[in-house]
Every structure is written in C-alpha cells, then in structure tokens.
User: Fold this.
Amino acid sequence: MNTPAANNPNRSYAYALTLVPGLITLWGNTMGGPWAWSNVIFVLVVVNSLEWILRQQRNNDAVTENGLPDLYVVMAIPMVLAGIGTLLWGTYKEILEGSSLVGAVLSTGFSSGSMGIVAAHEMIHRKETAWKRAGDFLLFLVMNPYFAIDHLRVHHRHVATPLDHASARYGEHFYQFLVRSIRGQWMQSLESEAERLRKAGRTPYGSGNAMIRNTLLQIPLLGVLGWIHPLLAVVYVGQALFADILLEYTNYIEHYGLERAENERVRAHHSWQSDKPFSRFMLYDLSRHADHHMYGGKPYYQLKTHEDGPTLPGGYAGLIVPVLIPPLWFRMIHPKIKAFNALRSTATS
Assistant:
C-alpha cells in the first residue's frame, strides 16, 4: 500500500546518483587501459547485482523544492559533453587503444544513454522552449533526430497499441523490436514533420523539416572529426549508436506485451514499473513509467508508483542480460503478464 506523500529532502539528494556513470566514464577515458571499461563494469556488474539484491522503494514521498532536481538535469549537458570529449581526446592522443578503446566507447555510450538521453527525455517534456532546445542538443550528441518528435507526437498518443512503433509486442524479441522500432520511428517522424510543414504552407522535405535538418547537421561534425583523425568519427558514431540501442532497450522493457485499445484511456496497467532504487534515482525516476504516461507533463521528481500497475521482475540495469537472451526474457516476463492479466480480469468481473 502506498504511503501518504510526505516532504522528504533525502529524495532530491538521491538523484545525485545520475552523475555517477558520467564521473566514472571521465575517470576511465582519461586513465585508459583497463580503467576504460569502468562504467561498463559499474553498470553490468555493480548496479546489476545491487538491483537484484535491493528491495523496491515504493514510497510516494514528495521532494523538497530546493532546485537540486533541475540542477541534476542541467548537469547532463556538461557531463555528456565531457564524456564524449575525453573519449575523442583519449583516442587522438592514443591513450585509448585496442580493447581499452572499445571499453571507452561502450562506457561513454552508457553515460550518453543513461544520463544524456534520459535527461533529454525530461527536457523535451518541459513547456519552456529553452528546456526543449537543451533536450534536442543532447539528442544531437547521440545522433538521434527522431526521438523527440516520435515520443511527443506518437508514443504518448498511441502507447501500447499497434500504432506505436516504440511499444514491444508480446512474443517479439529485442532484436526484432530494435529494427522495427528505429525504422518505424524514423519514418513516422519524417512524415510527421513533413505534414506539419505542409499545413504551414512550407516545403515538407526542406531544411524546416527537423528530421532532415538534424540529420544533415551531423555531416559537417563527422567531416571535421574525420579530417582530424578518421578514428575520431568512428568512436563518436560508436558511442552514439550504443546510446541509441540503450534507448531502444528501455523502450522495449517499458511496455513489453501490454495492450491498449486505441480509444482506451492510458492507465497504469499500460506501462511496466520498477521501484528498484538504482533504476529510480540513477535514471531520473524513468522507471516510474506508468505515472509518466498518465501525466506526461509531471516533473520526474514528482512521479509516483501505482499499486495497480505491473512491476518488472528487476531493475533496468538488471534486465539487460535477460533481454539479450530472448528465451530467458520470455521465461521471466510471460508468467508475470499472464498473472497480471488474470488479476485484472478477476478485479473487473
């Protein structure tokens, strides 16, 4: 049973965990050698293990309005820039070579994805233009032109229906979803922008189309990096690609196997929740996903857990390995879907 909301300053301090992957990445990228794998090990070993050990924190206490939650979101910009910058510098100076370079690319991608894209997600939901532009910039750093468009115009409207490419179907493994989701979101975002411009009497596929503009703007950046050293362009694309794969992994587990009729109101049972502490505080409470879809404009630090929503079998970091092994993932999640659907059927009959 949810506890009554109470003012709790500790919750706002807990979100400082969002900074940890970025700080570890900076350390690894500047040290080189085996240290370059530090953030990969932190996420897949340390956080993964703790997510399975620690209990859910389902309390709905309020956050003291002290400016810290917004500061953590803003800090994503310099942290992600520094992570990518040290990756490029370490590559250029040959501090990062061979296996250490691979580790640095993956570690930086974990930081760009877990901090950068999740912070961008929070930013694009804010009403103020400055927040939205900041979110667009973070998405630019991971070469993602489609997420802001599709997420706001399509995903929130059609979540858990066949019209949403970012909602995983029952029985669809991650690798199928990855291709379908990226391709579908990319094309739908391109057409959404074209339609917006047509209504405004403008050229649908010109520079006013954010999909085309943001994609083309990557060319001079990659050109400069490649001119300095070809490997710089490769590692930049590598960290961006890995960050975007993490985004699609997150999309996959957030709505897997849950269904909604197109005319049905979005409710808690259309999104998976996880109240594992690292999933909550390291990812700006993204794992309280049901409340986010019910109240899209609510700041992350005000999100609540819902007793009538389905709960994932683990935290976001803890489910990476099972998702990559489809039979294991299906064995974990399908019984929970069936049990939850049976419970709902009993409750509504």
